[in-house]
Design goal:
Two copies of one chain form a homodimer. Chain A has helices at about 30-40, 50-60, 75-85, 95-105, 125-135, 155-170, 190-195, 225-235, 245-250, 255-280, 305-310, 335-350; strands at about 15-20, 70, 90, 110-115, 140-145, 170-175, 200-205, 220-225, 285, 290-295, 315, 315-320, 330-335. The longest helix of chain A is centred in the last third of the chain and has 25 residues, at about 255-280. The two termini of chain A are about 25 Å apart. In chain A, strands 2-8-7-6-5-3-4 form a seven-stranded mixed β-sheet, sandwiched between helices. A four-stranded antiparallel β-sheet of chain A has the order 9-10-13-12, with helices on one face. In chain A, strands 1-11 form a two-stranded parallel ribbon. In chain A, helix 7 (about 190-195) links the parallel strand 6 and strand 7. By secondary structure, chain A is of the alpha/beta class. Chain A has twelve helices and 13 strands. The interface between A and B is large, with 52 and 52 residues.
Chain lengths: ~350, ~350
C-alpha cells in the first residue's frame, strides 16, 4: 500500500482499529452534524464558484486576508494544482509519497534531498541543490512537510526563515505542506510569517481533514500571493469543494474549545505512547510533534509484527514504500487512550513472546 | 460570466429564480437526506480509495462492469483528467466553455469545428479535420456534448456510430460528455453501445449533479476501457469524491420512480416553454431535448431583457461567452411549472411593452 487508511483492503472478520490513518481521535467537533443538516439544502445549488463565505471563515481563522486563500478538494488538490506551475520540484525525503507522484503527474523534474542520519532535513544538501538549480531557467519549487510525514518533525521558525531566504535568493518557491500543523502546538504561526513577507516565494497548504476529524470531507486550502491565487483559479476545476465541505468549513474553524482540547489530548497521548514504547526497548522512536510517530524496529523486519497486530484487530502503516525507509519502519497514529493502551498491550505481547 | 449559476454575483434584495442553472426542478430524490444523515459518520474515515461500493452501485445502474467506471469530483474532474492524456482536442462549437478551458490547461492544441447554420454538428468539417489530424503523431481526442450545451441537441445512435467509426479509423478518442443525458429520454443507451464496442476509442462522462438535483454534491463518473481507467487512477487526486457524495451515489441511482417522474416532468415543461415562447414571436428557438433551451432574439440584443428579468427576480444565461454565439442568444433552464409560468409572464410583459 502506498497510503494509510486503506482499511477495506485488510477487511477481516474483526473491526480494525486503524493506526495507519492519522486522524484526530476526538472525532469531529460537536455540533457539526446539526450544522451540516441545517445547511443540507445548499446541495440544491452549485457552490459559490468564488467560495466567498468559506474564504471569509478561513480568513478569520488564519488572520490573513481572504484574497490570499484558495480552498480545494483536500490539501492534495491544492498541492497538485500548485505543482502544475513548476518544471522542477525539490523533495527532501522521507516524505509524503504524493509529493513525488503529483510532481511526476505534472511533468516536474524531481531533485531528491537525502536526509541526515536521524532523518531530519539536511540543510547543507538542500542549499547546494537549490543553488545548482537556479541557473537553467526552470521554474523551481521545494516542498516540505511541516510537520513532516512520516517523521513528525517540525521546522523551527528560524529554519523556515533560513530556507525561505535561500529560496528567495534563488527564485525557488517554498511550498510548506502543513496538513498536520494544528497538531503540533507550535510556538509560531507560519501564516503570520508568510503574511509579513507578502507571501513572496512561499505557499502554505493546510487541511481540515486530519485535525478536525473529517478525512471523508475533503477540504484543504492554500495560502499564497495573488499571482499564485489567480494561477490556481484557472488550473483547478470549478466548484471542486462540495456544499457539505463548504458548510463544514464555515463551522469548524470557529470551535476554539475543540481546537484547544484536541491539541492537549494529542500531546498527552503522544507522550504516553512515547514512554510506553520506549519501555519496550524494541524500537528507535523518532521524536514526533504530530499525531503520528515513526518507529524503527531494532531487530528484524516488521512484517511479522504487522501480521500479528492485524490478527489482533490493529492496522499499522508499514513504511517501506516511503523513499529512504525500509521494512524495519512502521508509523503509528496517536489515537484515543483506550486504543493506544490496546496497541501497547499487543506490542508487549508480541515482544515478550519473542 | 463564463458559467451559469453564479447567483451570488447578481445578489439583489429579491430572491432570484435561477434560470441560468440547469438543474432538475423536482429537487433531489426523497429519502436522500435521511440516507446521508444515516451515513454521516463515514466522514470520520477516508473514503475507500478504490470506491468499490460506489462503483458497484453505478455498475448496476449503467449495466456495465464496475472495472470500466471511474468516479470523480463532478464530471469536470473526469473530463480534465481525460484531457491530460491528449495533445490535441477537437471541439465542435458552440459547446460547454470548460472543454476549451480544460484543454488549454492540459496543454492540448485545439481544433475547433464550426457548426451548421442551425448550430448542429457539421459532420463534413468534422470528418475532414479528423482525417487531417491523424498523421502527425499527436494523441487526438474529440469531445462532444450529448446533449450538447447550450443547444440541447442529441446525437442519434447512427450519428454516434458514424463519428465513432471515423474516430477508430483515425486513432482519435471520442469523449461524449453526457452530463445531461438522463434528461433526454433517449431511445438508445450510449453505455450499452460503448460496452458492445469494448469501449474502444470511446469515453463517456456523466454527472449526478444535474439530473438528480444535486449540483452542490459534485459527483460525476467516466466509463471507459481499463487502460483509460488505469490512466485516470494515476492522474486524478486520491479520494477526490468525498464521503457525502459517495453516500449519495450509493442511493440515488436506485430510485427508479424519481428517474421516471423527472424525465416526464421535464419533457412536459420543455414543451410548455417551447409552445409559450413560440407564441411570443420574438425568438428563434433551438429544439432542445435537454432541460434547457437556447433562444435567439429576432430583433435586438438581449442585454435589456436580461436587466428587465433580473429586476423581476429572474436570472437567465447570456450566451455571448459561448464561442460562435453573440449577444442575441440566451439560454433558459426548464424549471418548475410555476417558475416557467412566471418567466413566460415576464417575457410577455417585456415584449408587449415594446
Amino acid at each position: 500500500m502506498i497510503h494509510g487508511a486503506d482499511i477495506l483492503s485488510y477487511k477481516t472478520d474483526k473491526d480494525l482499529i486503524d493506526f495507519s490513518s492519522n486522524i484526530n481521535p476526538l472525532g469531529y467537533p460537536t455540533g457539526l452534524m446539526d450544522f451540516i443538516i441545517s445547511e443540507f439544502d445548499n446541495v440544491k445549488s452549485y457552490p459559490d464558484i468564488q467560495y466567498r463565505e468559506l474564504r471569509d471563515s478561513l480568513s478569520r481563522y488564519l488572520k490573513t486576508e481572504a484574497k490570499y486563500i484558495v480552498p480545494g478538494n483536500g490539501a492534495m488538490e491544492i498541492i497538485d494544482g500548485v505543482l502544475s506551475k513548476f518544471n522542477r520540484c525539490i523533495i527532501p525525503y522521507p516524505s509524503f509519497i504524493e509529493y513525488e507522484l503529483r510532481a511526476k503527474e505534472n511533468n516536474c523534474e524531481i531533485e531528491f534531498i537525502a536526509p541526515n542520519p536521524d532523518l531530519s532535513l539536511n540543510v547543507d544538501i538542500l542549499k547546494s541543490i537549490i543553488e545548482n538549480c537556479s541557473d537553467d531557467g526552470f521554474k523551481n519549487c521545494l516542498i516540505i512537510g511541516n510537520p513532516n510525514n512520516p517523521t513528525g518533525y517540525v521546522l523551527s521558525l528560524e529554519e523556515i526563515k533560513t530556507i525561505h531566504s535561500l529560496c528567495i535568493e534563488n527564485e525557488v518557491t517554498l511550498i510548506l505542506d502543513e496538513a498536520f500543523f494544528e497538531f503540533t502546538d507550535s510556538n509560531y504561526d507560519t501564516v503570520e510569517y508568510a503574511n509579513s513577507m507578502n507571501y513572496k516565494n512561499i505557499i502554505i497548504v493546510r487541511a481540515a481533514t486530519k485535525f478536525f476529524g473529517l478525512p471523508g470531507i475533503r477540504l484543504g486550502y492554500g495560502i499564497m500571493n495573488e499571482d499564485n491565487v489567480n494561477f490556481l483559479k484557472h488550473s483547478l476545476n470549478p466548484w471542486s469543494v462540495n456544499s457539505f465541505a463548504e458548510s463544514a468549513g464555515r463551522y469548524i474553524f470557529n470551535d476554539r474549545v475543540y481546537i484547544k482540547e484536541s491539541v492537549e489530548y494529542i500531546k498527552k497521548e503522544r507522550e504516553f505512547l512515547y514512554d510506553q514504547i520506549s519501555n519496550l526497548n524494541s524500537f528507535k522512536i523518532f521524536k514526533s510533534r504530530s499525531n503520528y510517530m515513526l518507529l524503527k524496529a531494532m531487530k528484524n523486519d516488521v512484517n511479522e509484527l504487522f501480521d500479528f497486530l492485524l490478527q489482533n484487530g490493529i492496522l499499522i502503516r508499514l513504511c517501506s514504500t516511503f523513499r529512504g525507509l525500509d521494512n524495519t519502519y512502521i508509523r503509528i497514529a496517536v489515537k484515543s487512550h483506550d486504543d493506544n493502551s490496546y496497541l501497547i498491550k499487543k506490542l508487549k505481547e508480541f515482544y515478550n513472546a519473542k
